[in-house]
Design a protein that fits this description.
Length: 137
């Protein structure tokens, strides 16, 4: 089971790395695919910077964490995708549903579930140890 989770984390990270590359090299098309349209150079720059960093950092942490069997790194994409899911949930409550609203939420929830499951199975520090390390440098 550990090997399967590790492979899944790495493959999902590879997919997210391709997403990051799409936003970096073709931000207009990649953004439009997610319903985001750039209004001039500032919009293109924002899509290129923000979406590339979101998916790129997530992918790096997933792939490096799987490769090195360091599940602590999997908390980063879990938090990023969890925050995205929460934002979509708030939007759903405030604005109501839109066609296929469930699809991105399912992807985000799937990321969170996979990262937490892998974090529990792979070698990691406890949350308390991670927080102590952050606080004590």
């Amino acid at each position: 089971m550990r090997l399967i989770l590790t492979a899944l984390v790495f493959l999902v990270g590879l997919f997210d790395l391709m997403m990051a590359g799409n936003f970096l090299f073709d931000p207009g098309v990649a953004g439009a695919g997610l319903g985001v349209n750039a209004l001039g150079p500032l919009g293109v720059s924002t899509i290129r910077a923000d979406f590339t960093s979101f998916f790129g950092i997530s992918a790096f942490c997933m792939m490096w964490g799987a490769w090195r069997r360091n599940a602590d790194l999997l908390l980063v994409p879990a938090l990023l995708f969890g925050a995205s899911f929460t934002g979509r949930l708030i939007d759903l409550i405030i604005s109501g549903p839109y066609p296929a609203f469930w699809f991105p939420m399912t992807i985000e929830a799937g990321h969170v579930v996979l990262m937490i499951a892998a974090w529990r199975m792979l070698p990691h520090h406890s949350i308390e140890q991670v927080i102590d390390e952050i606080n004590n440098g």
